[in-house]
């Protein structure tokens, strides 16, 4: 398998044709204050799309509700490629700017999600790995499918998305996408559970004439079988086997 660009500290390669397999394990802790007069900030934790400027610094974010927020303060020194978009999970607070009718965001903590464009199985030179994991939650984002995965093994966890099929249904005008979670791990020793944050890009399936995307997302679980999460116009359902 091509392993160029792999890093092990919460950094995602966004190159379309590179099998970037990444580890994302988040533990974001916010300190509290014992002063009764302290006003606790209204902090959210969400998946966001962040946009960088010419110097690679993050300048704004787009929420999954479609709201664009300028970053007015950020605790992260994250630098990415200039004038690009990256997918992140962030603890942030929304702020009023000026007269209060322009929204901004103060970032307290963030990390990049695992967000490579899905690849066909043939592009994984060492084959498709499906080590077990469990989905904690899965839902639609803004041009993305957001997933929080729980893993138990120690070591490095490498994730990607395998595109098994993508077919446009001429009757509905929707593209039917079947995906499998690629998961490789360097250790079989289990310990306490950890979380990985994944965000599958879907915009590439919205070609001319396509009305929407239906997804069947398959993972191999700790129970020793595959589980498929189906997200379509009818909502979310789970199929065993």
Question: How would you portray this structure in words?
Answer:
The chain has 241 residues and is mostly beta strands. It has 2 domains: 44-112, OB fold (Dihydrolipoamide Acetyltransferase, E2P) (Beta Barrel); 119-240, NigD-like, C-terminal beta sandwich domain (Immunoglobulin-like, Sandwich), CATH 2.60.40.2370. Helices cover 0% and strands 51% of the residues. It contains no helices and 14 strands. It has a 6-stranded mixed sheet with strand order 6-9-10-12-13-14, with no helix packed on it. Strands 1-2-3-5-4 form a 5-stranded mixed beta barrel. It has a 3-stranded antiparallel sheet with strand order 7-8-11, with no helix packed on it. A hairpin with a 2-residue loop joins strand 13 (226-232) and strand 14 (235-240). The radius of gyration is 19 Å and the shape is globular. The two termini are 27 Å apart.
What tags apply to this protein structure?
5-stranded mixed beta barrel; mainly beta; globular; 241 residues; 2 domains; Immunoglobulin-like
Question: In short, what is this structure?
Answer:
The protein has 241 residues and is an all-beta fold. It contains no helices and 14 strands. 26% of the residues are buried.
Helix content: under 10%
Q: In the CATH scheme, what's the topology name of the largest domain?
A: Immunoglobulin-like
Question: What structural class should be given to the helix and strand makeup?
Answer: mainly beta
Strand content: over 45%
In CATH terms, the superfamily of the largest domain is NigD-like, C-terminal beta sandwich domain
Distance between the termini: 27 Å
InterPro entries: NigD-like_C_dom_sf, NigD-like_N_sf, NigD_C
Organism: Bacteroides stercoris
Protein name: NigD-like protein
Domain NigD-like C-terminal: 117-231
């Amino acid at each position: 398998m091509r392993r160029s660009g792999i890093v092990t500290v919460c950094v995602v390669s966004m190159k379309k044709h590179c099998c970037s397999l990444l580890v994302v394990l988040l533990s974001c802790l916010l300190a509290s204050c014992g002063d009764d007069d302290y006003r606790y900030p209204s902090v959210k934790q969400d998946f966001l799309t962040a946009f960088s400027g010419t110097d690679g610094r993050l300048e704004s974010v787009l929420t999954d509700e479609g709201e664009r927020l300028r970053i007015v303060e950020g605790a992260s020194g994250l630098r990415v490629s200039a004038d690009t978009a990256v997918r992140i999970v962030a603890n942030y607070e929304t702020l009023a700017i000026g007269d209060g009718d322009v929204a901004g965001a103060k970032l307290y903590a963030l990390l990049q999600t695992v967000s490579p464009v899905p690849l066909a199985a043939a592009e994984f030179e060492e084959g498709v790995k499906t080590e077990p994991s469990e989905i904690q939650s899965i839902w639609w984002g803004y041009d993305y499918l957001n997933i929080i995965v729980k893993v138990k093994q120690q070591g490095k966890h490498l994730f990607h998305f395998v595109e098994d099929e993508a077919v446009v249904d001429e009757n509905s005008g929707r593209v039917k996408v079947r995906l499998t979670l690629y998961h490789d791990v360097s250790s079989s020793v289990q310990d306490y559970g950890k979380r990985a944050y994944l965000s599958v890009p879907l915009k590439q399936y919205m070609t001319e004439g396509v009305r929407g995307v239906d997804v069947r997302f398959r993972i191999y679980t700790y129970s020793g079988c595959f589980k498929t999460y189906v997200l379509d116009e009818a909502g979310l359902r789970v199929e065993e086997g």
